[in-house]
């Protein structure tokens, strides 16, 4: 593997990035550098009104890696794809090479994440309606998950489910209404991981985003027989897919 590659992990809503640890440990065992992003909108003391702080945090961590000359593969889960696309603008390797700089984002890996076009928010992209498993507070500032064991972890064992559910935190609901202004997947190589048992973003919706929203941009695909949380239930398969996205022939 290439020691100049950093894998940056961005979690979805409600999640601590430590959820990726089974994959992180496998990548570090074959000498990849890894970084994890804690999203400010997850469990804040005061809820945010947009995704700007998430974008800024992801961008800071990408910049730190690329300024050290690293090639960066950004792995995004669920909601995490939205602020990550924004954060990548101007930090892809092609743009930086044109400026005479080394390092840059080389690949964007969607782990059952949302692929959203410019001008849309997560909510508007799906007709302006909340997903059926959202539980939104009356003041529209906080959102939680109904039945996360069934929505996120339907192929995990009881111990995994208990630990994962206990780790979830309230999320800033208004971040779901932030409008995307940059689609990094139009500008850098990208991979979408289809998760066949995903109860949060059903396979039909995953395919609609890849074959509809991203049509014509050459997004690659991988498939795993997993729930919305393959980093817990199928870490070997997810690790291999990420290594292929990083350029390995495995």
Automatic annotation (TrEMBL):
Q: Which domain of life is it from?
A: Eukaryota
Gene3D superfamilies documented for this protein: alpha/beta hydrolase
Any Gene Ontology biological process: antibiotic biosynthetic process
Q: Where is the AB hydrolase-1 domain?
A: 7-238
InterPro entries tied to this protein: AB_hydrolase_1 (IPR000073), AB_hydrolase_fold (IPR029058), Sec-Metab_Biosynth_Hydrolase (IPR052897)
Q: Mind telling me which PANTHER family this protein's record contains?
A: AB HYDROLASE-1 DOMAIN-CONTAINING PROTEIN-RELATED, ESTERASE_LIPASE_THIOESTERASE DOMAIN-CONTAINING PROTEIN
Q: What is this protein called?
A: AB hydrolase-1 domain-containing protein
- Give the organism the record lists: Penicillium frequentans
Lineage start: Eukaryota, Fungi, Dikarya, Ascomycota, Pezizomycotina
